[in-house]
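Backbone geometry:
***
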Amino acid sequence: MSELAAEPTAFMARYERATNSHDIGLVAPLIAEDANYWFSDGSYRGRAEITAAVARTFARITDEVYEIGDLEWVTLTADHAVCRYRFSWTGCIDGRPASGRGRGTNVIVKRDGDWRMLHEHLSP
């Protein structure tokens, strides 16, 4: 891994761990205030809308395990990065086992010394 990729890669691992905590209080600080997320169920703009959508997912899918794999950096600079990856999840919906997988594209930016998610696009 290149030296330039180390921080963004560590950020993505932290984001994955925060997601798996199912604690919106751990996820929210990783999202930029002006972020835009595109999910299969809709688009969300701003941290408040995004965290509300993520919290709904946390409530709907219990015991969820979310995994990011095949992480590939498309663009890397000292203050922004673009990656694509494959994701998968398992958990329970209405008490029944459920799972899914798809592709993700993220734009992350470094602001005030910390990396933040500026855009996330997940698709099946």
